[in-house]
Amino acid sequence: MKNLNNAMVTDFYELTMANGYFLEGKANEIGYYDIYYRSIPDKGGFALFVGLESIIDHIMNLHFSEEDIDFLRSKKVLSEEFLDYLKTFSFKGDVISFNEGSIIFPNEPVITIKSNLVDAQLIETFLLQTVNHQTLIATKAARIRYSAKDKVVIEMGARRAHGIDSSIEGARAAYIAGIDSTSNLAADQIYGVPSGGTMSHSWVQSFSSEYEAFKAYAKLYPHNATLLVDTYNNINSGVPNAIKVIKEILLDNKDASYGIRIDSGDLAYLAKKSRAMLDEAGLNNCKIVVSNALDEYSIRTLLNQFAPIDVFGVGERLITSKSDPVFGAVYKLVAKEENGVIIPIIKISDNPEKVTTPHFKKVYRVMNKNNRPVADYLTTHNEIVDQKKPLTLFDPIYTWKRKEIKEYTLKDIRKTIIKDGELIVKLPTLNEIRQYAKSNLDELWTEMRRFSNPHKYYIDLSQNLWNIKDGLMNDYSKK
Predict the structure, then answer these.
(1) φ and ψ at 47, to 5 degrees?
(2) 181-200: buried (b, 16+ CB within 10 Å) or exposed (e) per residue?
(3) Which of 6, 148, 172, 244 is deepest in the core (most CB within 10 A)?
(4) Within this chain, do residues 411 and 273 fall inside the same structural domain, yes or no?
């Protein structure tokens, strides 16, 4: 395959629209585009935003090569004027965003792009692809992390991922969400996600006996000797051979670390039976690792059954978010500038959930007196909120549902990341993002983390913003 320039990872209509702006004299018009999502995966109570670093890298390095220009010319669709523009293209707009690792909720602008219409169009596909994938995996991983409580969780889904980038970026997203390590070596090399591994069934099968396979592995890797015990028979063969090898090779090595892994069968029963056998043999420090199509639901069930499991290896159901594999973020034009004045724009739809919230906006997180979030509050970009006065929150659809909050603070939760095409903030490290995600997750009410019927967190509009939206809807209804 030819070397891929990420600028070409785009839907063709982005280029035909951008070309059209040129031909229609609209290339220099300024637009405001919001990225937001409409519903939470798995009918959960929150999502965890990941992918900003990838987006920044893409935008800051976006360019079209001569080879790209030649290919686009061969399509015989785009004008030479536009192709000349692409030869020296660089993004010149602004990016306003939540921090990576933030909790995000439906129908609030996670990222806003302010730029000329051409620049905004050329980055749409990559931005949505990135947010939709990485935020989806991070959200799933956060649920799995929560279900596993204090147990170790390893991401090990590379072989079931939807391609190379999916496996690498997915491992990074899972780590930010709190997963402890990955089997994916590239995620370690590129991002520093801790990686590790043990053995597969083929290792065991390649030796004359299970005992010999375990013995060889224990000699080679005494510091990480996790023995896969279910190749033939967990209880009658695997665990007894593991006990024998641990006693012969590892027990007297004070630096040794050892465990067994169960990859099939009734994991709760097998873990309990194995724990009893290990303890009877005096191997109380031997860890039990389980894998086999695990997710937050099966992990919760295993722990509810008091299965003595130390480590969960989670693969396909995490890296593909198998239970709900589409995140659904969208990219919508919400305002334009005319003579330096921001003019709100709305998209109307027969589907109420697809009606956009117009204008360039600020997003506040409303924190109660105990510093816990109670709602997110959207205002116009230039609106002043007097925090000395009570704040009235109301449902933007069922407007009679109102609540007044007297003791609160407002946290402005977005910031400008790129200004006029220049990166103006220092990017956090991976572990700083991970810690930020943890602090955000820790702020959530436990009711919002339920897997079934979680508490609904409200996204409220200021009265001023609601009036603007309602007015635009009424104006269009009369046309």
Answers:
(1) -130, 155
(2) bbbbebbbeebebebeebbe
(3) 172
(4) no
Under 8 Å between Cβ of 227 and 258 = yes
Q: Are residues 347 and 451 in the same domain?
A: yes
- Are 99 and 242 in the same domain? no
pLDDT of residue 479: 64
Q: Which of 259, 286, 313 is the last residue of a domain?
A: 286
Q: Are residues 121 and 51 in the same domain?
A: yes
Is 199 in contact with 217 (CB distance < 8 Å)?
Answer: yes
Please identify every stretch of the chain with a pLDDT value under 50, giving residue numbers as ranges. none
Q: What is the dihedral of CA 215, 216, 222, 224, to 10 degrees?
A: -100
Work out how many domains the chain is built from and give that number.
Answer: 2
Same domain, 369 and 471: yes
Contact yes or no for 377/366 (Cβ under 8 A):
yes
Examine the fold and report which residue of 286, 309, 344 is the final residue of a domain before the chain moves on: 286
Q: Could you identify the residue written with the tokens 């990017």?
A: 427
In three-state secondary structure terms, 153 is strand
Q: What is the pLDDT of residues 217-245, one digit of tens each?
A: 999 999 999 999 999 999 999 999 999 99
In Å, how far from its chain's centre is CA 111? 14
Domain co-membership, 131 together with 210: no
Give the tens place of pLDDT for each residue, 363-412: 999 999 888 999 999 999 999 999 999 999 998 888 888 999 999 999 99
Q: By the 8 A CB rule, do 9 and 126 touch?
A: yes
Q: pLDDT at position 5, please?
A: 87
Give the N- to C-terminal CA distance of the chain in Å, as an integer: 52
pTM for the predicted model, two decimal places = 0.95
Q: Residue 382 sits in which domain range?
A: 6-138+325-477
CATH number of the domain to which 240 belongs: 3.20.20.70
Q: Are residues 469 and 355 in the same domain?
A: yes
Distance between CA atoms of 331 and 26, rounded to whole angstroms?
Answer: 19
**Same domain for 335 and 232:** no
DSSP-derived letter for residue 249 is I
String of b and e for 450-459 (b: at least 16 CB within 10 Å)? Answer: eeeebeebbb
